[in-house]
Each structure stands twice: as structure tokens, then as C-alpha cells.
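Here is my example:
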Amino acid sequence: MTNSDDGADDGLTGIELTRKRSADLFVILRDEEGSEASHAAAREDLVHLHLPLVEHCARRFRNRGEPLEDLVQVGTIGLIKSVDRFDTDRGVEFSTYATPTIIGEIKRYFRDKGWAIRVPRRLQELRMQIGTASAELTQSLGRSPTPRELAEAIGCTVEEIIEGIESSNAYSTLSLDASDDSDDGAASMLDAIGIDDEGLEHVEIRESIKPLLDRLAPREKKILLLRFFKNMTQSQIAEEIGVSQMHVSRLLNRTLEQLRTSLEEES
């Protein structure tokens, strides 16, 4: 026998049925007069109902060297947090609210798992703040927040927000030995690399030196740029800036020693 509620649902799509079921479960979960058992059951049903959303979010990160099953487990933690924090009075779809939290949890997992490039602690902490603020603003605004709105909520500049978002590029990337599982015998990424890029070993050093270079006087900075980025000889540099080759040598040695000392102090 089919009851009237089932008949009313016959014309709904799968997405609409999920939304209706989700709304009904949140009514049970938030019912202050309901029993602890009914709350627990509704909470569990909500998690199971939205697991496809977690799997969808996890697949966005499947090529970063971590098993999809692990990403789903981590994303489920974000889903549970979303269920517990969701405010039905905001008038926002639960999936809209939960998605940034799920993705934030997965990204946090990558952050804790390791970085391909050392990222300053302030950026790692800023990314966590962005994830939290994004989830809260998405629920209150009914849409994804802009960088300026995030900056105002966190109390920083728009440039810092953008820098924090872009820092996700420093996560561990796909293994060079990985290949497409659907194509047996397919070449790995390593097979497509002709030679090792020796410059990669110095990325961290270059990033650490950048702020030190900004503190140099214009002439010393120009000498370094001409010598190490344009590969000019000391004689060519001397002619370029209008001093003797010996003077260029002294300035170069002094500047390098200054950078070395500053770098050791920063470390």
C-alpha cells in the first residue's frame, strides 16, 4: 500500500527527493522534544544521505597522490561537522553550506600530510581561517563569498586572502610513478620527463631570499640580478652601471655575505 506522502513524491526528481528528505531529517534532528535516539538516527541518516556529496568533493582531489577512499573518509568528517552546525533558519540548501566545509577538511588533510614546498605557518593558519569563514559566509549570504568579504570577516587584506587560497598549490602532487588506472601499460609521468630539473632543489632557497633582496639598496639588487639572472660577467656589469670591475667584485662579495648572514638569522 502506498501512503499519500509517497504519492506526493512521485513527481519529484532525485535531487528534489534528497532535499525533501534532508529537510525532514533536520526537523527531527532539531526537534527539542525529540528523543536522543531519534536525534542520533536522524543525524546518521543525514550523513548517509549526503555521502554522494562527499564522494563528489573527494574526486576533485583524486590526482594528488592520496587514495580516494582516504579522501572520502576525511571528507565525511567535514560532512558530520556540517550536519551538527547547520542552521535551517538561514534558508540555505544544506549541500551549499556543507560543500566548503567538506572541501576544507580534505585540504586540511593534505596540509597535515605534507607540503611539496615549505609554506609559512601564517599561510597555513590563514587557509584554515578562510575555510571556516567561507563556510559561515556561504550560509549567511546564500552564495560563495568574495575575497573582499572574506578579508573583512577575517580582518586581513584581499591580497592576503588570495595568497592564502593560492598556497594550496604547494600541496603534495601526484606521484611521478602514477599512471591512468584505466589504461594498462600507460606511461607514467616520470616517463614523460626528459631530464631532472636541478632548479627545483633551490626553490625553497629562492623563496626565502626574495624578501631579503627587497631590503637591498637598488644598486646592489641590480648587480645581483645582472649577475645571477642575466648571467652577465663582472666586466659587463661594471660597464652597465659605470664602475670598475674590481668595485663590482667587492660589492658582489659584500652583498652575498650580507644575504648569507641574514638568511642564517632568519633560519
User: Anything to note?
Assistant: Confidence is low (pLDDT under 50) at residues 1-8.
